[in-house]
Structures are given as structure tokens and as C-alpha cells.
């Protein structure tokens, strides 16, 4: 199905009705298997001990926190360039989910950092840029709540989203550009991952599960937003009818 | 081109004659710098060490505060509609307004910085470094802030939100501005690398800021 077919909200709702359960079941199954593997099967790291299990949550939420912003950036382009009618719905729905994943990433990272680095927080390049990502998410959510008309809010948020997208490559490459405390990239790199398969397999299962969870949450949030806008339109119409009668 | 020069001159005249924008900004800068020693204690050695940071924070806050009226004022009196219908591209109009805003509010901060750094017990070399980094860095603050100012057209009752939206984007400027000035103060680290990155950030925001601001204004008005 082409993206343009989903421009019709009714058709999108039908698609969402079919897709949400599939993504939801996939997410529940994969996350259950992933958590079982991560907490009971995967070996302890020879240096990190049991704390390595935190990273099965930390790494997927970091990936999703960034991926969600990429989705928002594409949606922002959809709003400003192609004027796709559901692009700003997608963008609004994605912001709180991305903020939640980013917050989860920061919190689990802090819990891991306390025993491993001896501190909850350092002003390291990657940590700082991830915190900036969270601030941008929160600013965008505040922007959505300030402007009442969804169309105007969507275009304003789209401009800000595109400006904030500068931060994504900074987060991705922060560990390569500045040699600070956070370890360099170890999964997606030239020459293959530096992680042993006994740890890598549960990690990838968790990552795919988290992605499925994101798809399910995003589609449900979009559906809710469409319904919320319909309710808003109906209320305005009812009020107008009441005023003229 | 003449239209843009006329716009810059008009904005400068307004800034000087109405409301005393530049003066209030410098006064706020002074207030922030004066309040700091009360909060941290009048230890001159400590103040000398963190002086560049205090000056940069003061300049950042002062330039954020001046932002939200930049386009909103023109929207209220209808000037913005005229600018939109003019043949000059909106991006260039935004750039001209940003330039005028920087001359009216950013440049006075740079000029006030040497005087204020005496209050913080900075040495001549450190004063030079802070003034130089502020001179290069404040345009970046203004032109990134231009996006927030353009969003204020949509927001109407934006105020504080504009500052909240722009603050995360201006963090890199703060980082490189302060690391360049600190490098000059302590002498251990190279001054050139963070300083050239600061220049690059300024030039980049000079291009991107007006484009994004133009898009935001168009999005906010129709």
C-alpha cells in the first residue's frame, strides 16, 4: 500500500485497526522472549557482571529515542513539503513516545553508570546530546499544547522539528568525534559487531521488539489523535449550530 | 538590496527610539553579572576562573529575552503582511531583521562585556578572549533565536516558551564559546579549535536561521 493511500483518515483507521494488533502481539512476544533471554539465558559480562542486563533495555530505548525523532523529521517534511494530511498527526503522536524512550534511555543509563562509572551522570558528549534530545522533545510537546489550532501547531512544530534534527547526527557520531566516557559504537560498525553473539542475539530481539512496540504505540496514538480531532470538529459544529439556532 | 538596507535602518531606528531595546538588554546583562557574586560569594579567584562562563550565560539570557517581540511587533501593526507581499524573499527579510536585531541588542552586549569583566576580576588576556568569542558567538545566538522569534508569530502568547524552545539549540554555541574563552584563560588547551568551530556555528546559523524563520512565518500566517 502506498503512503498516499493512507492520506484518507478513514482508510488509515482501517489500516490501523488491522496493523495495531499485529504489531502489538509481535512486540509482546519478542519482548517476552528477549527479556527471558536477557535475564535468564545470556551470560554475565566478565567485567560488568549482572549490570550488563540493564543494557538490554538501555540500547533499544536509545535507538528508538533517535529513530522516533527521524520519524518526526520525515513527518515534518511531509507536513511542509508534501502537505500530507496525516503527517502532522504522525508527528504529534510520535513526540511523547520518543520522549518516553529517551527518558528510559537516560534513566537506565544512569542506573548502569552508578556501579560501572561510579556516577549517575557525567557531562559526556553523548549523554549531553541525548539530554538535549529530551529537551527538544519536551519543547515540541509544549509547543503542541500551546497552539490551539492543530494545523497551525503542526506547521510550527514541523519547522522546529527540522531545525532540531541537527542534533541527531551529533548524538550518533558524538562517541566518534569526542573521545569521552561513553563507549564507542559496537553493534552497527564496519568490520562487524564487537559484541559476542550470546549477548548480541537477545539485544537484537529486544531491539526488534521495542521497534514493534513503537509501531503499535505510534499507530494507536495516531488513531486517538484523528478521533480527537473529529470530536473537536463535531463540538465546533455543534456549538455553531447552537449559536445560530 | 536597497529595500533590505531600508529595512535594517528602519529596525535600528525603532530599536533606538522605541522602548530602548538595546539599553534594557545591557541593563539585564549587568544585572545577571552583578547578581552572580551574591550567589557564589565574592571570592575573586573563583570569579576570575568562572568569569567567562558568567559573561556567556548573561549574554545568552539577555539575547533570549529580547527575542519574542522581534516579529510579533511587526505582525501586530501589519508590517509583516506588507513584507510578505513584497517582492523581496521572506528569507532575506528575516536575515535583514536578524542583522538589525543583532546590531541593536547583540553588539551592545559585546561592547559592555569588557566593562563587566572588570567586575569579575578577569585578566586582560581573558577579557580579550571573552569579547572575541562573544563577538563571534552572539550572531549565532541571534540567528538561531530568529527561528524562535518567527514561531512566536504562531504562538501569540509565546513569551517563555520561545526561550524554552531555543535554549536546547543554543547549547553548542555556549559549549564552544566557553571552551574557547577558558582555553585562553588557562592556556593549557588550544584556543583555535573551539574558536573556529564557534565561527562555523555562526556562519551555519546565518544561513539556516533565516530559512527556517521564513518557513515558520509562512506556516504561521496562512
TrEMBL record, chain A:
Any Gene Ontology CC annotation: plasma membrane
Compartment(s) of residence: Cell inner membrane; Membrane
Lineage: Bacteria, Pseudomonadati, Pseudomonadota, Alphaproteobacteria, Hyphomicrobiales
One BP term from GO: cytochrome complex assembly
Keywords recorded for this protein, A-Z: Cell inner membrane, Cell membrane, Cytochrome c-type biogenesis, Membrane, Transmembrane, Transmembrane helix, Transport
Pfam families per UniProt: Cytochrom_C_asm (PF01578)
Protein's name in the database: Heme exporter protein C
GO MF entries: heme binding; heme transmembrane transporter activity
Bilayer disposition of the protein: Multi-pass membrane protein
Annotated Cytochrome c assembly protein domain residues: 15-182
Family to which this protein belongs: Belongs to the CcmC/CycZ/HelC family.
Residues that span the membrane, as ranges: 12-42, 62-82, 94-113, 125-144, 156-175, 195-220
InterPro entries, per database record: Cyt_c_assembly (IPR002541), Cyt_c_biogenesis_CcmC (IPR003557), Cyt_c_biogenesis_CcsA/CcmC (IPR045062)
Known function: Required for the export of heme to the periplasm for the biogenesis of c-type cytochromes.
UniProtKB/TrEMBL annotation, chain B:
Major subcellular site: membrane
Tree of life domain: Bacteria
Annotated TM spans: 21-40, 46-67, 99-120, 126-153, 160-179, 191-217
Keywords: Cell inner membrane, Cell membrane, Cytochrome c-type biogenesis, Membrane, Transmembrane, Transmembrane helix, Transport
Location relative to the cell: Cell inner membrane
InterPro entries: Cyt_c_biogenesis_CcmB (IPR003544), Cyt_c_CcmB_bac (IPR026031)
Function: Required for the export of heme to the periplasm for the biogenesis of c-type cytochromes.
Similarity comment: Belongs to the CcmB/CycW/HelB family.
Protein name: Heme exporter protein B
Species this protein is from: Blastochloris sulfoviridis
